[in-house]
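Hi all, long-time lurker, first post. I run a small reading group and we've been trying to get comfortable going from sequence to structure in the token notation. Rather than ask abstract questions, I figured I'd post a concrete chain and ask someone more experienced to write out its structure so we can walk through it together at our next meeting. Sequence below, copied exactly:
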Amino acid sequence: MTCLNRKDLGLLALRGAVGGVLIAHGTQKLFGWFGGGGLEGTTQAMEHMGFHPGRQSAIAAGLGEAGGGAMLVAGLATPAAGAIVAGTMAGAISVHAPAGFFSTAGGYEYPALLGAAGLSLGLSGAGRYSLDHALGHRVDRPWIGVVAFVASALGACSVVSRRRHVMRLREERAVMDAGEEGAGLS
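-- Answer (accepted) --
Happy to help. Here is the structure in token form:
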């Protein structure tokens, strides 16, 4: 009989907690579960936050959270799951960063913690109590982690950069509109 391993139990508990939270957030976005806005509400929110196109951004965020979370819970392709979660949370961090660090002020503390947990699990692996272990680590190879994290980082940089550009254009447009309104008052 195999003895229970504390490290593997800890990884299972962490995967379940982090993955469960991500699944809940992703299904809010995709299906409106747990009081979420569903795809339509999330699309509008994404457009408001500067993510364009809004619908594709809503689907990507929902799938990144729900799919990445489900993969973490199962311990399946854990390096890819961790990369998906970290990349998805990078987009969320970009939204919350202007409010500072602490979540009590609307800051990026919470998505940073989820992203760091996903990154850590992706690097450490899922442990013995996982599908990766049951499958003989066929989808948990070091090269998969490297490819997944590089792709995730490039994708996150692209999304965040595009969002910054959209937000900059909005600010410039608001300044121009304010200038036009002020010019009509003289």
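A couple of things your group might point at:
Residues 142-183 form the longest helix (42 residues).
The two ends are 87 Å apart (CA to CA).
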